[in-house]
Hints:
The complex is a heterodimer. In chain A, 35% of the residues lie in helices and 23% in strands. By secondary structure, chain A is of the alpha/beta class. In chain A, the strands form three sheets. In chain A, strands 10-9-8-13-11-12 form a six-stranded mixed β-sheet, with helices on both faces. Chain A has a four-stranded parallel β-sheet with strand order 2-1-6-7, sandwiched between helices. In chain A, strands 4-3-5 form a three-stranded antiparallel β-sheet, with helices on one face. Chain B is an alpha+beta fold. Chain B folds into four domains: 7-211, Alpha Horseshoe (Serine Threonine Protein Phosphatase 5, Tetratricopeptide repeat); 238-308, 2-Layer Sandwich (Alpha-Beta Plaits), CATH 3.30.70; 346-455, Rossmann fold (3-Layer(aba) Sandwich); 459-561, 2-Layer Sandwich (Hypothetical Protein Tm841, Chain: A,domain 3), CATH 3.30.1180. Chain B has 19 helices and 18 strands. In chain B, strands 15-14-11-18-16-17 form a six-stranded mixed β-sheet. The relative contact order of chain B is 0.10. At the A-B interface, helix 7, strand 10 and helix 8 of A face helix 10, helix 13 and strand 17 of B.
Amino acid sequence: MGKVQIVTDSSAQFLDPTVIERYQIEIVPLTIALPSRKVREGRDLDAAAFLQAIGHEHARAKLEAPPVDEFAKLYARLNQHTDQILSIHLSSGLSDVWNNARQATRTLLGRCEIEVVDSLTTSVGLAMLVEEAARVADEGANLEEVVHAVRAMISRIYSVFYVDSLDYLRHNNLLSESQALLGAMLEIKPVLSIEEGELIPIEKVRTDSQGIDRLVEFALEFTDFAELVILQHTPHDNDLTTMLRERLSLEFPDRHFPATLYGPSLGALIGPNAIGMMICEALPEDDEDEW
Amino acid sequence: MTDLSKQPSETLAADGQMLRALVQAGCDWLDQHHALVNQLNVFPVPDGDTGTNMLMTMRNAIKEAGTYNGSHAGQVAAKIAHGAMMGSRGNSGTILSQIWQGFAHALRDHETFDAELFARALREAADTAYRGVIKPVEGTILTVAREAAEAAEAAYPQHHDLPGLMDRVVERAKDALARTPEMLPILQKAGVVDSGGSGLVFILEGMARSLRGERVEPSTAAPVEVEDLATALAPEDEMGYGYDVQFIIKGRDLNVGVIRSAIDAMGWSTLVVGNEEAVKVHVHVHDPGIPLSYGISLGSLSDIVVENMQEQYQEYLRERTGDPTAVEPDEEEPPIAAFELGEDDIGVVAVASGEGLARVFRQLGATELVMGGQTNNPSTQEILDAIQRVPTKKVILLPNNKNIILAAEQAARLATGQQVVIVPTRTMPQGISALLPYDPQGDLQTTAQAMDAAKDDVVTGEITTATRSVELNGVEVHEGQIIGLVDGVLAVAGDDLDEVIRGVLEQMRATEHELVTFYYGNGVHREEAEALVNALSDTYDSLEFEVVFGGQPHYHFILSAE
């Protein structure tokens, strides 16, 4: 039967990229449309340069899902050496990727066991889920067991971002009228969180200091993290990162949290000046998974 | 009106008609002296005038009393009290209305009153006033009210006639007033007696005079001249006649940064804000056609306003000596819709001292606005009306001025049928900051708490012109100088605006913050505000500055640092 083949998309950000090779994870590249051209994430795209580009040119970037038949072709190819596929993707509340993938599975009906899972997250959060799926699959679990493991983890993934504008969300048609930020006379910056798969504004602030405080307050709502990853708009710590680290260390003195540059597909939604965190909530002590 | 000059000096009892006449006389005597009372304001600032506030409170009381033609003293008193309550402005006006509440309560079932009842009524008046304030302070109107009651009680055994009793009352009230600096150190430092107490003394004195048969005429003086505080800043319009052009571009994929650069090159004092679908442009140019043509090339235009700035400024100067609240609106746009409120949602009422500030509050989601008026203190009625206009049962009220908090509390108590929570913001910037966590669908207490916490996220600076000379907090102020307050405390005084602003920024610890916002008042031109801020940003290069039209009277600039 072979191991379950794991498929995801380029929005997933692995802190340790060797995981991809090790578990033979298949990555579907997403397209990002800029005013002048389209680029494919992961391939012809330098993430840091991308963020700089949208920053300098005030350019808007729009996330585009691979068409249904691209998924269909991929699954058909994979079907040649496996009959169990788990395709886990960027939240359906943020793009059409999951939807297109799901439609593509109809072409495989009967010939292959395939599950398309909506991660309800993206970026590092998605990668955490993918890695867990791959690990479990590697231990010999069947498709149903892998799906079960992933689904159990989805509700433990949280995200929060401090951004400089809602325009990026608006450009990607992800902002409802009622969420449109008020206050055109004053500089107002939103704090966003992914809730039920959607990026929604949860707070309004005026300064970086206030924005960082909101991020820390968000973190404080958890009794413990299995993981907390800082997402920043530069490859190395910037001023926002430093501020966030300082305040986090006051609350969590013994922990050091990894930070990474966020990828283009997330950048298209939160812009080139954001900072955020993705958190995987720790399992309560007395709740043990049985495998 | 009853001609009291014909009354025998041995007046033993009075009815409602006479009460009305007495209170009218008290009002008229206060009217003649209210400018004096205004001068006693400890802070040399041009708003929150106690004399004007108390006078307006009394006038509303009289107006309400006029709706009852009978002679039942208790009924007249009740009308006076109600009118005072609804018309109360400022802390002094509100405490005065509490005095009338107590007074009316004592008289409620009595058609006439004699000296003994009058003494009891004064006692109840004083007690009610004390109870209405969370932290009563001696050396204020409360002290004068209390001692007036004590004097009446002590005098009664000897004086069964109202005029005699009243004379003793006024004598003691004046004595108490003279002693207020001994009780309240800040009065001593400022070299004045308490303004609220002084207002009450004039009211009592007016009543005594009319009991003695001395005519008290309503004031014939011209309405109080509003000093043209802007003259110190009146800009020489070096640019010559220019036009103030504003419009909104509606389109798709609009690039705010690109539009801003283009507009900036066309004139001066550029403000361009918005998003991909709507961009608001505001610029001063010599030829309005240029920015308008540019705007049309990008989309459709709406809310177009073109104003001749020189004419506007002159019109404004003319209006300033009349009703200062009738400010030439700077931007005509309809209010951007606040949140659509469902029945169970929370609405917000905010007090604004200027049109621009009102607009900011609306844009941040405030449901209803109350304008501050000439003294920056709206009446209890005005606040209550705004609360009742909110279409929901839960309301959060932002007074945005420490002199409005008592009137706000009174209005909240009167708003039966709605749950009103006051977030005690003391300045406009505190109100703005408090609105950031406002969540209409939130839980009332939680939201109010979040807003209460947020109000302290800013430091407020206020720049105005001193109305008197005084020394306070170690700062020496001469009348006419520019002064700066930080979180309501006098901090800087000087002859040069730029110097005072820098001093205020220092006292505000601006460098420890990230963003300083300048809200310019209705005496200041945007270009002037921007020039000033541009000069500052050279010195304070780690700070971000914002310039926003506030439109407030009296205060050239309100600053916030966060």
